[in-house]
Design a protein that fits this description.
The chain has 363 residues and is mainly alpha-helical. The protein is built from 13 helices and two strands, in the order αααααααααααβααβ.
Length: 363
């Protein structure tokens, strides 16, 4: 569990750095005024190697059961001989360089240089994570490349979203900001979706059959939660853009914050997935007795590799209810209701869709 938590926090730290650096190179008249203390960046940079070290330590601790040496020797072995440790070492060097530059280039006349170099350093740190991820181990260079695109797109998108929604000081320039962020976000989401499908090709033997495993259940929830995110993205790009044009004083910040909160849930699910065995051999994993508790609880059939989706009255009802809840997300915006009510609708919608799919599972 602690490894999953550290991975989730790691995603957030990368998003903060990517968001700050991207906004830092955008002209002031194209964005809202944000106030990010330098110590926030410093903390995020320092946390990245510390959080990623937890996975390294976990591996070293596991190896230590087979090595008659102190744990520190196992840590050294991982760093010098295993890709995970070597990637951590490279990441730590990049983080150290970032910290040094943060203090050397902290003045106003050099801050743009800091943010520009920071983008490359953050990308480099993301690269160290991509080359040791599940996709790289299963799909070699193509898998690592897909993971890198996936990681970069998601941190760029949610990084700008997080920083703008939680650190904006005023409501100036929303219209100009949305005018460039909308196509930027669409591009990131497109890359995110395509790279995700490409990664799934390497990691997942069969999407529906994988629901019998913990990884497959987490992936299913990730997909289902991504659907309401698209509704929020539509509101925060297309609909809010129109409203801001009509009312220059209108602030979309609460809707952006609501979207960022549901994204945090997706990050948590993704972090859990990093510690699960990918379903590249579902039958073998099931034989080892590693079927999902969620599948056993909500599906009416035993865990097997012969699963199909067969709609019935109950599953159709849940799916329709889910779509109704998702439609309520748009309705709350039109009615100028609190976006946090829309957030509840998003959760209910994803849950209803989940029950609909689980009820449609058959052999």
């Amino acid at each position: 569990m602690i490894v999953s938590i550290s991975n989730g926090l790691l995603y957030i730290c990368f998003a903060i750095l990517m968001g700050v650096c991207l906004l830092g190179v955008i002209p002031k008249d194209k964005k809202t005024s944000v106030d990010i203390p330098k110590k926030t960046m410093a903390i995020a940079i320092i946390l990245i190697p510390l959080l990623s070290f937890i996975s390294l330590f976990d591996l070293a601790f596991s190896l230590n059961h087979y090595r008659e040496e102190p744990i520190i020797a196992s840590i050294g072995y991982v760093i010098t001989n295993i890709a995970l440790g070597q990637a951590w070492l490279a990441l730590s060097v990049l983080a150290l360089l970032f910290i040094i530059l943060l203090f050397v280039l902290r003045h106003n006349n050099t801050i743009i240089i800091l943010y520009t170099i920071g983008l490359f350093l953050t990308f480099g740190m993301l690269l160290t994570q991509a080359i040791v991820g599940h996709s790289a181990s299963m799909g070699s260079y193509p898998g690592a490349t897909a993971h890198l695109f996936h990681y970069t797109a998601v941190t760029a998108w949610i990084g700008v979203l997080f920083i703008t929604s939680w650190f904006s000081k005023n409501n100036d320039n929303w219209q100009k900001f949305i005018s460039w962020f909308t196509p930027f976000a669409i591009g990131c989401v497109t890359i995110l979706a395509l790279s995700g499908m490409f990664m799934n090709y390497f990691l997942n033997e069969n999407f529906v059959n994988s629901w019998t495993l913990p990884y497959g259940q987490a992936l299913l929830w990730k997909v289902l939660l991504f659907i309401p995110i698209l509704f929020f993205a539509f509101i925060n790009s297309v609909l809010i853009r129109k409203r801001v044009k009509q009312d220059a004083q209108y602030s979309p910040i609460n809707w952006w914050r609501a979207e960022s909160l549901i994204i945090l849930i997706v990050i948590a699910v993704t972090a859990i997935m990093t510690e699960q065995e990918p379903p590249h051999n579902i039958e073998q994993t099931l034989q080892a007795g590693e079927s999902s508790i969620l599948f056993q609880t909500f599906a009416s059939v035993p865990a097997t590799t012969d699963i199909i989706l067969e709609l019935n009255g109950q599953s159709i009802l849940f799916l329709l209810i889910g779509l109704l809840f998702l439609g309520c997300i748009l309705y709350t915006f039109v009615q100028k209701t609190s976006p946090y009510i829309a957030l509840v609708m998003a959760g209910l919608g994803a849950t209803s869709l989940y029950f609909g799919l689980m009820n449609a599972v058959a052999i």
